[in-house]
Design a protein that fits this description.
Layout: E1 19-20, E2 30-36, E3 39-46, E4 49-54, H1 65-72, E5 78-86, E6 88-89, E7 92-93, H2 95-100, H3 106-115, E8 119-128, E9 131-132, H4 138-152, E10 159-161, H5 168-176, E11 182-189, E12 202-205, E13 209-220, E14 227-235, E15 241-249, H6 255-264, E16 291-292, E17 298-303, E18 306-307, E19 310-311, E20 315-320
């Protein structure tokens, strides 16, 4: 009788994480990888059982049945992979389509998956056929992963091997082109084991840019009547002010002055185009509550990623621009960074 091999690692398994640095580290001891614009995902398979785990340890398979199905069709039947979930649309990756997958209705998820199938980009092999590779060096794990990919990914749909390089110049070119498919560059120590939940041997580098934005509204900090964040807008070709993100990067000591300043400017509608939406699917914060202000104040902010008409993350305040007319704060500052494909996943 054939004994079924047991999955050697069980979810939740905290993925190895990265700490932020300002520059790409140089030297022979580093492997460089694209930092993909998607959701981190650790994939477990034991026989016919597939489990997809988010970075936070939550199950993802219900939102990505296409990827669960693709992994169930691989020749290998017992493995643990680490990678990134992305959704290609018209030759580039769409974070908006990715977020739409987090929907409670299975019928809606199935429709989205059929219209725009996801891709699982794999960058690490943590276990296979009962053997755990966490203590192996990245150099050895990459060799094992490339062998695994040759045997399993060649005819697989929606599962791809992430490219890597040890060439510093190539990593620099990737970094210069971030803002579309890529969220930056990751550098990993070649001699390091897989440190689950730690940031000891991996660094991430993002390209920081600046944009001048109009403050179109604000939110009070939770439980107070003091400004907690400022809502940022840019004018589109339609002449309307569209909400593109927020900043909360100011000191508590500044909140009193900011509250008095923007309460005095409070006036509807604030944003004449797209307005701030409801709570994030990842958050229960009351993000739908905000106060509109007259579009008179311009602030320069630093950001790392703009896509889908929004700053992906919170921005940092650089300086207040009393010298700039709000109407000069247009989308063309950021649109050329918003969507491009580097072709790194093409066969």
């Amino acid at each position: 009788m054939k004994t079924r091999q047991k999955r050697p690692l069980q979810p939740p398994l905290p993925p190895m994480e990265a700490r932020s640095v300002d520059e790409i580290p140089a030297g022979k001891g580093w492997q460089y990888e694209p930092k993909w614009d998607g959701f981190r995902c650790v994939a477990f398979r034991e026989g016919e059982q597939i489990y997809l785990q988010s970075k936070a340890g939550q199950p993802l398979a219900r939102y990505f049945p296409d990827i669960a199905g693709a992994l169930s069709r691989l020749p290998a039947t017992c493995f643990v992979l680490d990678g990134e979930l992305v959704v290609p649309v018209s030759g580039a990756l769409s974070f908006d389509e990715l977020q739409l997958r987090l929907h409670p209705a299975a019928s809606r998820v199935a429709k989205l998956a059929k219209a725009h199938p996801a891709t699982y980009i794999v960058f690490d092999l943590l276990a296979e056929n009962g053997q755990v590779f966490l203590k192996h060096s990245l150099r050895d794990r990459r060799r094992l992963l490339e062998r695994f990919a040759r045997l399993n990914f060649r005819s697989a749909k929606h599962v791809r091997l992430s490219p890597t390089t040890t060439d510093y110049g190539t990593a620099g070119k990737w970094l210069k082109k971030t803002g579309g498919d890529l969220d930056g560059v990751v550098a990993k120590r070649l001699d390091a084991p897989y440190a689950s939940g730690e940031r000891s041997a991996v660094v991430k580098i993002k390209q920081i840019r600046t944009a001048d934005c109009v403050v179109g509204g604000f939110r009070y900090a939770r439980g107070t009547r003091m400004v907690g964040s400022l809502l940022l807008g840019l004018y589109g070709e339609d002449g309307l002010l569209h909400h593109v993100g927020f900043t909360s990067a100011f000191n508590k000591s500044e909140r009193g002055d900011l509250t008095r300043k923007f309460e005095a400017l409070r006036k509807s509608p604030g944003f004449t185009g797209s307005a701030p939406g409801g709570p994030s699917r990842w958050s229960t914060d009351r993000t739908g509550e905000w106060e509109p202000v007259a579009p008179r104040v311009v602030v320069e902010v630093a950001y790392d990623h703009f896509t889908g008409g929004r700053f992906r993350h919170g921005t940092k305040i650089g300086r207040w621009r009393q010298d700039k007319d709000p109407r000069q704060c247009t989308m063309d500052q950021v649109e050329h960074h918003g969507r491009k494909s580097l072709g790194l996943l093409e066969s």
